[in-house]
Amino acid sequence: MMFFLLIWSITSLGFFALAASMQKHQKQIFGQILAAPKTRLATILGWIILAVALGLCAITGALSNMISYWVGSLSFAAILVGLSLSYAQNKIKLIVIACAVVALITGIMCSI
């Protein structure tokens, strides 16, 4: 369960970063459209975070099983991000911080 929370929180952070790279969601999250370099940074960061989550899954167990595990966590992360952008626009920054804290705590607990 701890490993799932780790992968889920990391993929959620990746999806939030990718959402922050889209103009519509930039208005929701930041209240304005970001400059092109910041948009590009959010895109690159989002893909890197998702790749890190995939890498963690790949080195943890059988590759075929863990890719399926990663895709499952992507689904739950997409639900969180989609519902957050739809119904909790004012609390997105708090949700991102909560995801980062969950990733940090579960990362520490999984490494022990």
Largest sheet: none
Helix fraction bin? over 70%
Structural class call reads: mainly alpha
| The number of domains | 1
InterPro entries: DUF3325 (IPR021762)
Protein name: DUF3325 family protein
Keywords: Membrane, Transmembrane, Transmembrane helix
Transmembrane segments: 43-63, 70-88, 94-111
What report would you give on this structure?
The chain has 112 residues and is an all-alpha fold. The protein has one domain. 87% of the residues lie in helices and 0% in strands. The protein has five helices and no strands. The chain has helices at 2-20, 23-30, 36-60, 63-87, 92-111. The longest helix has 25 residues, at 36-60. It is globular. The two termini are 15 Å apart. The model has no long low-confidence stretch (mean pLDDT 93). The chain crosses the membrane at residues 43-63, 70-88, 94-111. This is DUF3325 family protein. Keywords: Membrane, Transmembrane, Transmembrane helix. It holds the Pfam family DUF3325. InterPro entries: DUF3325.
Concise synopsis of the structure shown:
By secondary structure, this protein is mainly α.
Tags for this model:
mainly alpha, 112 residues
Strand and helix layout:
Layout: H1 2-20, H2 23-30, H3 36-60, H4 63-87, H5 92-111
